[in-house]
Amino acid sequence: MSLITPVRVTLRVVDMAVRATLAFRLRALFVIAAVGLGIASLTLIVAAVDGAQKRAREVVDTFGPDAAFILGGDIQSRAVGQRVLTLSWRDAEALRQSLPGAYMVVPMRAKWNVILKYRGRSVDLPTVVGATQNYASAWNWPLAEGRDFTDRDVELGAKVGLIGATPAQKLFEDESPLGKTVFIDNLPIQIVGVLSYRGGTTGGGGDPDDRLIIPLTTLTQRFNMDRKYFRALRVKFHEPEYMDAHAANLRSLLRHLHGLEPGQPDDFTILTPDTILKFLSMLTGSLVAFLGVTATVAMLVGGFVLANLFYLSVSERTQEIGLKKAFGAKNRDIMVQFLAESVLLTLAGALLGVALGVGLGQALTRLGVLEIELSSRVLTLSLLAALAIGILFGLRPAKRAAGMNPIEALRGG
């Protein structure tokens, strides 16, 4: 009996709150919409942060904890006219022979936006990468079929290639690409290896599987590129726990090889897993700061709309309040009723806000603006925030209603 009574009381309070809400539909919609906008921003924050953290883990796993990626030019300064082909075969050989802890050095260069053909089929290929032997091993990218390049392939400028999963599917469907000859413009390339499906996106939002890898010497010879320099280097190290020391040694050796004096800026950029995590954390922090201000302002606006409309509601419902008090309702009962109405509206706003936030987040994900990760935490935090808004901004109007004198309330009615 003691348990049934509180349940009945709760259900009665909820029923009265629903009836009162339905009696003032327009005001209820204003409150729900105002709170919903704030909760939508909060939903975006939580989902975007979770998505950014997930993406950071994926990027680091793909990048490899034991590797460094060196790009020609200083990508942080982005100086106009800056030379980006600053890495040479001399650098690669010196790193192989003299860099402590390094066991693999793979130079790379790329040609963008070519047409790849096989018999009567053709696909637009965003990237053709020129690399040396051990490309797949350097990127921790297993081969689904075939073999990687050899020293002899690179030395002879062989017309062989590794094909990614995306063009392989488009050109060959369920047929094995091994041994088949594809054409880049008029250059025939025999497929000797098929990269396994990796999935995800590249830093620019592209498909990492949409590529063809050929020997670097073949790329530079056949497309009349500078044969002395290349765009990037991939270096792998023993003992990845000492990556900071490896990066420092790498930077020191490259500065020496390039004849850079103290105080001169680097003409290269070194990326390590820590660098990537710091960069992604900076982006996440900026995103959280922007959306956090937006969410806070939106929720405060929603709260003030709620408070003002409830003050108006209290003024218009004085007769109702007076009658309830005349029939024995206590101050606490009146306050609980108005708080229940407030919480009901903000919870409805939370559900609307979560739906809006998820919809907007998915739209932004499709556009490549951000990546969201939905979890139960999104709904939990949204409901708690809505509950807090309902109680915080509904408390004063509820107290005002509860503190009314029943006789004066009836006269006012």
UniProtKB/TrEMBL annotation:
<feature type="transmembrane region" description="Helical">
    <location>
        <begin position="334"/>
        <end position="358"/>
    </location>
</feature>
<keyword id="KW-0472">Membrane</keyword>
<dbReference type="Pfam" id="PF12704">
    <property type="entry name" value="MacB_PCD"/>
</dbReference>
<keyword id="KW-0812">Transmembrane</keyword>
<feature type="transmembrane region" description="Helical">
    <location>
        <begin position="28"/>
        <end position="49"/>
    </location>
</feature>
<feature type="transmembrane region" description="Helical">
    <location>
        <begin position="287"/>
        <end position="313"/>
    </location>
</feature>
<keyword id="KW-1003">Cell membrane</keyword>
<feature type="domain" description="ABC3 transporter permease C-terminal">
    <location>
        <begin position="294"/>
        <end position="406"/>
    </location>
</feature>
<comment type="similarity">
    <text>Belongs to the ABC-4 integral membrane protein family.</text>
</comment>
<dbReference type="GO" id="GO:0022857">
    <property type="term" value="F:transmembrane transporter activity"/>
</dbReference>
<feature type="transmembrane region" description="Helical">
    <location>
        <begin position="378"/>
        <end position="395"/>
    </location>
</feature>
<dbReference type="GO" id="GO:0005886">
    <property type="term" value="C:plasma membrane"/>
</dbReference>
<dbReference type="InterPro" id="IPR025857">
    <property type="entry name" value="MacB_PCD"/>
</dbReference>
<keyword id="KW-1133">Transmembrane helix</keyword>
<protein>
    <submittedName>
        <fullName>ABC transporter permease</fullName>
    </submittedName>
</protein>
<dbReference type="InterPro" id="IPR050250">
    <property type="entry name" value="Macrolide_Exporter_MacB"/>
</dbReference>
<feature type="domain" description="MacB-like periplasmic core">
    <location>
        <begin position="31"/>
        <end position="252"/>
    </location>
</feature>
<dbReference type="Pfam" id="PF02687">
    <property type="entry name" value="FtsX"/>
</dbReference>
<dbReference type="InterPro" id="IPR003838">
    <property type="entry name" value="ABC3_permease_C"/>
</dbReference>
